[in-house]
């Protein structure tokens, strides 16, 4: 896998670190240079292996150790493969072992937060910050996630080493949520997470205006660069982010031995 050469490698590495920090669950451990996460929630970033460093054991030995962790947690073993994964031949090794690739994802970066303008949400629409548990419930219900996944998400947010802020958009006098999103700021970097627009409200520009407002708030707190993660084939979302000045930084995908669902 080749990274897009638009951004310096040092920035891509910094963004990857920030993404790992922001998605850290309480259920994780190190296995010879690999960060093994086994949270039972929906987010695959919190229940996969991130091969951060080469370590000293063979790939086969580490794979066996990791398999035990996932078996004990009753979760399928999943690898997250990035251009920074170690060793560099890991992806091809896993492919030869029969682990299928899925969920091609793009990490998009906006390296100049002074380069976009904030649009008005409208006089009858307001932003409100909500608690971690409330946000996990709201976005979980919008996505149709089961209660156990909502609870795992709330726990991860409460214990995150990077502070999250969850926000919702509502019309005045209405309880229904138009859209929701989170930010996780670490120094000069801010990540956009869980951007979701209610089905009945899509294609009205809410996501673009909402994200611009959140980035403006982060900019006022010292952020200069933003990042996010989005499915490669989510073209409507990617179009919104391009309009906000984001561009592809690098790609990642997952690998697992579990057969695809019918």
What does this structure look like?
By secondary structure, the protein is of the alpha+beta class. The protein has 2 domains: 91 residues, no CATH class; 127 residues, Gcn5-related N-acetyltransferase (GNAT) (Aminopeptidase, 3-Layer(aba) Sandwich). It has 7 helices and 11 strands. An 11-stranded mixed sheet has the order 1-2-3-4-11-5-10-9-8-7-6, sandwiched between helices. The two termini are 28 Å apart.
Total DSSP helices: 7
The spatial strand order of the largest sheet comes to 1-2-3-4-11-5-10-9-8-7-6
Query: First CA to last CA: what distance?
Result: 28 Å
Q: Provide the residue-averaged pLDDT.
A: 94
DSSP strand tally: 11
What order do the helices and strands come in, and which of them pair?
Layout: H1 9-22, E1 28-31, E2 34-37, E3 49-51, H2 59-73, E4 78-81, H3 90-96, E5 100-110, E6 125-130, H4 132-143, H5 147-158, E7 164-171, E8 179-186, E9 189-197, H6 206-220, E10 225-231, H7 235-243, E11 247-256
Parallel strand pairs: 3-4, 9-10
Antiparallel strand pairs: 1-2, 2-3, 4-11, 5-10, 5-11, 6-7, 7-8, 8-9
Helix pairs in contact: 4-5
């Amino acid at each position: 896998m080749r990274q897009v050469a638009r951004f310096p490698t040092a920035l891509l590495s910094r963004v990857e670190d920030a993404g790992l920090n922001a998605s850290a669950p309480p259920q994780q451990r190190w296995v010879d240079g690999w960060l093994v996460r086994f949270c039972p929630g929906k987010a695959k970033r919190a229940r996969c292996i991130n091969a951060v460093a080469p370590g000293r054991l063979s790939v086969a030995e580490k794979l066996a150790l990791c398999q035990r962790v996932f078996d004990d947690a009753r979760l399928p073993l999943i690898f997250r493969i990035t251009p920074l994964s170690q060793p560099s031949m890991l992806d091809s090794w896993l492919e030869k072992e029969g682990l299928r690739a899925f969920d091609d994802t793009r990490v998009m970066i906006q390296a100049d937060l002074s380069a976009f303008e904030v649009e008005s949400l409208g006089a009858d629409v307001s932003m409100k910050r909500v608690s971690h548990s409330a946000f996990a419930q709201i976005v979980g219900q919008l996505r149709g996630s089961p209660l156990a996944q909502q609870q795992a998400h709330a726990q991860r947010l409460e214990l995150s080493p990077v502070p999250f802020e969850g926000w919702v958009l509502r019309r005045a006098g209405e309880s229904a949520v138009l859209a929701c999103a989170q930010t996780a700021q670490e120094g000069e970097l801010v990540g956009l997470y869980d951007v979701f627009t209610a089905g009945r409200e899509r294609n009205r520009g809410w996501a673009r205006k909402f994200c611009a407002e959140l980035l403006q708030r982060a900019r006022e707190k010292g952020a200069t660069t933003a990042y996010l993660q989005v499915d490669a084939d989510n073209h409507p979302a990617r179009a919104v982010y391009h309009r906000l000045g984001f561009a592809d930084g690098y790609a990642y995908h997952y690998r697992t031995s579990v057969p695809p669902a019918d």
